Amino acid sequence: MFDxxxxxxxxxxxxxxxxxxxxxxxxxTEGFKFGGAGPVVARVDGRNISQTDWDIAHKNxxxxxxxxxxTLDVKLLDTPQARYTTLERLxxxxxLAAVSANSHLAISDQxxxxxxxxxxxxxxxxxxxxxxxxxxxxxxxxxxxxxxQMFEAQVRAxxxxxxxxxGLRGSGFAPAGASANALNAFFEKREVQLAQxxxxxxxTQLKLDDAQIEAFYKDxxxxxxxxxxxDIEYVVFDLEAIKKTLVVKDEDLKTYYEQNAARMAAxxxxxxxxxxxxxxxxxxxxxxxxxxxxxxxxxxxxTKAPATFADVARKNSDDTGSAAxxxxxxxxxxxxxxxxxxxxxxxxKKGDISPVVESDFGFHVILLSDIKVAxxxxxxxxxADLEADVKKQQAQKQFAEQAEAxxxxxxxxxxxxxxxxxxxxxxxxxxxxxxxxxxxxxxxxVAAVLANPKFLSAVFAPDAVEKKxxxxxxxxxxxxxxxxxxxxxxxxxxxxxxxxKEQARAxxxxxxxxxxxxxxxxxxxxxxxxxxxxxxxxxPVLVSRTEAQxxxxxxxxxxxxxxxxxxxxxxxxxxxQGYAVVRVNxxxxxxxxxAEVAKQELAQYTQLWTSAEGMAYYNLLKDRMKVQxxxxxxxxxxxxxxxxxxxxx
Length: 649
What we know:
This protein is of the alpha+beta class. The protein contains 26 helices and 17 strands. It folds into 5 domains: 1-32; 36-185 and 592-649, Porin chaperone SurA, peptide-binding domain (Triger factor/SurA peptide-binding fold); 189-209 and 499-588; 229-249 and 382-491; 266-372, Chitinase A, domain 3 (Roll), CATH 3.10.50.40. Strand 1 (40-44) and strand 2 form a beta hairpin. The relative contact order is 0.14.
């Protein structure tokens, strides 16, 4: 059959092409989806956001958070609430992008360039001369699957969408009267008295038998879980692994020496002393001129009597670090000092005293006391440095060439790491009892690989667990890939009662103690309400949102109490800590703030008010863009989900 098709390909095309045309007419292109993007989860301005879009966005968000917080438990980010938050953020980005496009907001090349210059990651790729190392720039973006053009287009798009809300942020204001009313209410105090019923005190009085402990253990298996564990083999493919295989020829070293001798030569160094009259750039023009005049007077004084320079520096220099030693700064090379100071020092002759030199720190008078001329080192003296440089360059080149082959190797022979280890001369390492949570003290080297969230996520992925196949090649850091396979897997399990009996006893006692404290507190609250004079309460204290001498739950309940109906009695459940009975006696007005504090508070209030206006404006834009989120919002509270996840670890 297939031979016939292959031999009569043109005839088959003639027959099938009209049929395809007919199918497009009757079915439409929507019927021909390859791979599929999944169901539509939201719509913005008539455009769909698919389940795949959402999944990718959430994965990127998880990767970003794990990069910022390497010890973060990824299970906490796999809750319905966390995923829904990602969807809301994705919708917000699409709304702002649509508004920007519809409003024809344009970003100039100069604005994009300024944004790139302020990026700290890109700044780290600049050499001493300020030039961007384009090769490292391309490599960095390549690890993210982007070219420089793609990245710069993304920056341009981000700047464009940012413009949508920037005008609103810059024009926000709040009346001083409204700010004062809101802040006075926020900072007011309440005088309270309370009696606390501690869960711990009741817990210590309990006598729990084995049957009660066993029943509690059986009813709460999630509290006594041992996490899943894996024994693994893994390999790390990085520059160090490649360097071990490299042998650099002498002729290559000599060629490299001849090409780079000047660059690698010892730098010329200069030794100088200075007198600094401090005057920062932020000082007023009058103060700057006054400081400059003083520096000029001192410059004239030491020019007439150079031997007095050290004494004059001790008495007059504002540089406390060098004044005690007569202004001496010791030897320094180019790049160590601020540019105006460096330019003046490297233009002087030994023994010269400079005119007044202005920098961001103020005004300097410089004495050049010595010069170390740059010395050209011989080939043998530089051999070790040359070999290290050449190996590094060759390793980087080979890594770029072989990274794809390594990635393909662990995938194509997925049942063992030995073939790829033999091919690339890598060591197959082992690790026991690995869990999803990074081990403590894993900061660098091999330990950093085992602590990498992406690596751990790949190790415990369904395919790796069920099939014990090699993980994909995971990028651990720049120029470092790793792959692993599970040798032995132990699923999460409930620990035997014998191992956790004391833990179960303590948990049950705490739970019962909290319940008894609550029952006692509620009984006392009812009795004291009926006969206030019999109440046994602590001395009065003042509580507010900024001054809390009582549990946070009490502060919240007290400040929600109607201030016009005092005194008032409250019962506050403190959860695991017990129960509190509170009497709110009176409202204590806030003391009037100083003018400076009032100014700061108005600025903060304005910022909050502007944020609220921004949210209102965004909601308006959502209506204009006809936003539809087609998945229900989770009702479970995020804090509860996080707490439960924490208990189950």
